[in-house]
Request: fold
Amino acid sequence: MKNTRLYLTDYAFAVFALLQVLGGFCLLFPHLLSLYILAHFIFVILLVVDFQKTKVWEAAQLFLSLPKTPELGEELSLKIQLRNFPSVDSFSKIEAIRPRLLRLKFSDVVKAFCIEQDEAQVSFDFVAQKLGYEKIEFLLLKHFSKLKFWVRKFALPIMPEAFRVIPTRQKISDQAFEQILPLQNLLHAGARRRMQSRAAEQFHSLREYQYPDSRRHIDARKSAKLGKLMTRTFDSLHDHHLIVVLDLGRSMLGNIGSSRKMDFYLSAALTLIEHSLAARDRVSFIAFAQKVEFAVYSSRSARDFLPLFEGNFSPSALEQESNFALLNPLLQKISGQRSILLLLTDVFRSSNQDYILKYLAPILPKHLTLSLSLIDEKYDLKQRILSANPQNFDLQSYNRLLYSYSLDESVQLFREKMAVLGAGVVTVPETYWLTSVEKVYRHLRNSGRL
Reply:
């Protein structure tokens, strides 16, 4: 079997150490020398015999079972089936896979138990400890010899099993959701601009006729002028274009709890894309810092977003300021009509507030625009006030409360400035992050503002 290594165990070294102690006594009691030589001879014989008892399983098959999207802090069980082992009884221990996103709940080794003569099943209890994407491609096994002098380690390839740890999907009540959305009238009011001549569709653009386009949509005047058949295209009332813009700049550096801050925002982006594709909407995704790092434009195909979902492109925050100036021409290019624009960035950074107001002001009123930001629990003003204990309120607690208040005040002023431009700002606590993002998107689709 490939990728196997054989080692002497600590038990074997302990026996060898005892023999050396016996050798030390031989210096004081020479008559023990024959016993020392005999013990060494027997020990070597036992090592050779025990070595021959170690197994090499050429036909071993492993099957791994793990939830695809465990939630942060969720307790889960990783199950492994092992088949075609000549003797499960001689199989001693399975060493943990040790995924970087999961933490073993109890111990780092689990004994196998026999199901049938050539099949075993083991189970590891894990806790999802940080966000991210990971793929498990091999399993480490330990087999101890009969006398425990040798241990053979196997690195067995398995069918790759991928999973993504996501933020907690704790349900949020309507009352709590309303508190998260103060003064966000664009989520609840507005009237769709319609063509009076069409009750169910809006005119979008002209393009060259292609079969099987309907002939009744051919524009005779434009066709005669251009010398080729031109057809009118329309967008249904239920046809939306979602544009998700993910900031990869300096403001996304750092951690929230044990996870990267960026992974919270990436989880929100993937959730939005997944829900939008399920609703048959067109989706554009832009990840940018000083330049566009990854982009998909106006797609209804999940295949175009596979690099994001399968971890082939894993966005990381960059040590550079975000260039919001590049978004204006880019958004005008990819969306000529009114769309849902969701900007995933940290608006608690005053620099981001200034950049958005400076560079995106011309385009914000043209779309149904919302900025979504995550509130770090350490600086959640409401939580700080509710959890404050007057008896243990020291200087550090006071400074943190004061800083939380200044952040909240800054965002309130920014929210008012964005409201003037017809855009919204939503800040969501970590606990309700994903469920609130989903709910916000549903409200935007149903708001009738497109």
Q: What stands out?
A: The two ends are 62 Å apart (CA to CA).
